[in-house]
Amino acid sequence: MKLPIKYASFVVKNITLAHRCTKMLSTTYATEDEHSLMDIFHGRKYPNPAGERNKDPILNVLKRVFNTKEPNLFLLEIASGVGLHSTYFAHVFPNITFQPSEVDTSLFGSIAAYQHEAQLENLLRPTVIDISKPCSEWNNGANINLANSAERFDYMLNINMLHISPFACAEGLFQNASQLLKPGGLLVTYGPYAVNGILTPESNVSFNESLQRRNPECGIRDTSVLQKLATLNRMTLEEMIDLPANNKCLIWKKLAKQ
Question: Is residue 179 classed exposed, middle or buried when 0-12, 13-18 and 19+ CB atoms within 10 A define those classes?
Fold first, then answer.
């Protein structure tokens, strides 16, 4: 199967990441039931060179913030892309069940291929989630929605989505995390960020300009803006960790109800 250009955002970061902006605004997706089972069972792994470079730095952060002892923990990954990260991390955290999700079911074949190669019991098959929509409206094969999954998840993970999707996805990420995470649960986000109005280095400035030229609704998010979204949704920024290639991991914690 040839990799369509609209999925290349997961492959060549500095050139085509912004295609996800257009994709999330203009593409109509099949439901899980409509998705071809042949693609699920006979898909092949799509390459993710950027993911291969960042998987270990991100993993080192997760090793520090995730519980490695307590059994039967659950993680929901939003925007799983080609499926590299959840599969790679699940090896290290056998006590955590990983639920990958994607708005684009055409990537399910690749996610399934990574999972088939890994042969791990703590990896669930991918499910459809449009994070820009409230979880009360979700309809997916994993039955993840507000009615069935309120405060179910210990962790949520979101890698390289916020800057290449409309701001509605950032709003939805925090709104839905506040509903789906247990009190004290963590949302981990990764990508490039501006900090209090300052975006560095120049390569990130140029990258942001290229994203916004392709779609004005996309662009590198400012941590101060995200903190406001977090506050509105009973969440707080616990830690900001600098990682290679001018990226950061942000650790967000859901506060207990007062």
Answer: buried
Residue with tokens 């900090």: 195
C-alpha distances out from residue 39 to 43, 48, 82, 91, 112, Å: 5, 19, 13, 24, 9
Q: How far apart are CA 26 and CA 254, in angstroms?
A: 32
pTM of the model: 0.87
Whether residue 228 contacts residue 205, with contact meaning beta carbons closer than 8 Å, is answered with no
Concatenated DSSP letters for 173-237?
HHHHHHHHEEEEEEEEEEE--BBTTB--SHHHHHHHHHHHHH-TT--PPBHHHHHHHHHHTTEEE
C-beta atoms surrounding 210 within 10 Å: 16
Q: How many other C-beta atoms can be found within 10 angstroms of the C-beta atom of residue 65?
A: 15
Question: By C-alpha distance, which of 95, 122, 99, 94 is closest to 111?
Answer: 99
Contact between 176 and 134 under an 8 Å Cβ cutoff? The reply is yes
Mutual angle of helices 202-214 and 19-26, in 10-degree steps: 30
Query: β-pairing, 127-128 with 96-102?
Result: parallel
pLDDT tens for the chain, residues 1 to 258 = 333 333 333 333 332 343 355 444 444 444 444 344 334 445 799 999 999 999 999 999 999 999 999 999 999 999 999 999 999 999 999 999 999 999 999 999 999 999 999 999 999 999 999 999 999 999 999 999 999 999 999 999 999 999 999 999 999 999 999 999 999 999 999 999 999 999 999 999 999 999 999 999 999 999 999 999 999 999 999 999 999 999 999 999 999 987
Using left for φ > 0, alpha for ψ between -120 and 50, and beta otherwise, residue 27 falls in beta
